[in-house]
Amino acid sequence: MNKYKNLLINVGIFGLSAVATKLMAFILMPLYTLYLSTEEYGIMDMATIMVTTLFPVLTLLISEGMLRFTLDDKSKAAFYITETMLVMLASCVLLAIILPVFDLPIFGGLGRYKIWFLLSYAALCFPSVMGTVARAMDQTKLIAYASMLSALIMGVLAYVLIAGMHLGLMGYFYSYIVGNGSAILVYLFAGKQYQFIDFTVWRNNASLRKQLWRYSLPLAPNSLCNQIQTTVSRFIITGVLGISASGLYAAASKIPNLLNVLQQIVQQAWQLSAFQEFKSSGLKHFYDVIWRVYHALMSIGSALVIALSPFIAKVLMQRQFYSVWPLISILVLAFYLGAINNFLGTIYQAYMCTKPLLIATIVGTVSCLAFTAMFVHSWGILAAALGVLVGSLTIFVIRVIDIRRLMRVDMRPFPTAITMGLLAAQSVVTLSQCGHYLFLSLICLLSIAGAQCYELKPLINLMFGRRKYTA
């Protein structure tokens, strides 16, 4: 039972981190939509998207390889961590070189804030990599401390600079850079992560570099393709409908990110446990158990957000932003499929078989972008939301079929299919706002919750010692 205990501990630690960072973003959302114009909000969102898009491109996600190999052999940790930090530093230099590109019109005015964008990249990505180091070196508590400090500083500064001093978009950049950058100090001084940097070990273990990069390289374009679904869709919206439309779509996308808080908590803990327990006995049973819990959390969470979306939108989406709230249901359905895709992706990573991740994601990305480009003129920003759904569904189908050659995880096909059908129905009635749609949405939510509670009944019996669990 130690592996389940460790998983729960990790869930708690990553939960504190996610609550601090993600929920602060939602606390600040009414501030942004109240004090920023749709154009400023669109630029702010474009900056955020470009940071998350460029991170896998410029670092090639070497930090993911560092995590996997360090957990496998901590005696070589100094090499993997030094290599990762050098790549992270090089990525900042490369970004500084290509900054003039952001003067192009497709970036919606981001070029006017080039230096602040570079600082935003460094302030977010360095703590992210250092957080991965903390996971690899059993410093997971530091992640919660760093996240809480950075969220608190960013939140206070945002209200002072934007609401108090009326600095607008510059107030956002100041609070974002200082808030996220403060986490670096936690990792450096509280975690003493500088002690993991050793250039002598790095030079003497160059033979390890090949296997590290062979594992990491497919992950970079895989992550990039996931980002492209969002980024290029925004470019299409901006080019066809304008930056204001992109800002409206960005606002609608923020509420489904509530679920990312839950998903990232479980996903990070699950990934760490999957790597740590890979060589232990009873691996398939462990994965089967985690699937039931993971799927229950993702499906109930998705149904709950769809049911509450009109009420959440009234609080978080001010002025003209509120008009696009029905898109939330489609984006939540896409999130649900994406969450399942991430679960399956962790299995590929545990087996160090990362190339199939890339193949499925490329196909899904092409499907997403083709759909968006085809229908954006006639359907507007709805086409982008449906495009993300199409891409996520494509990846899901490919991975469910392909994963069987590595491990036959019992994904409970019949209950899962029923849950997917109910979520799809709930999304459609909410999007269309048909008669009594709130009541119908509630019925779907209760049905999904009931089905998942029934699925979890064997685990509940196990927890209370009533009988042995069989997957």
TrEMBL record:
Protein's membrane topology: Multi-pass membrane protein
Assigned GO CC terms: plasma membrane
Domain of life: Bacteria
Compartment(s): Cell membrane
Record-linked InterPro entries: Poly_Biosynth_Transport (IPR050833), Polysacc_synth (IPR002797)
Main location: membrane
Keywords: Cell membrane, Membrane, Transmembrane, Transmembrane helix
Protein name according to UniProt: Hypothetical transmembrane protein possibly involved in polysaccharide biosynthesis
Lineage: Bacteria, Bacillati, Actinomycetota, Actinomycetes, Bifidobacteriales
Coiled coil: none
One Pfam family of this chain: Polysacc_synt
Transmembrane segments: 7-29, 41-63, 84-107, 113-130, 142-165, 171-190, 289-312, 324-344, 356-375, 381-401
Organism: Bifidobacterium adolescentis (strain ATCC 15703 / DSM 20083 / NCTC 11814 / E194a)
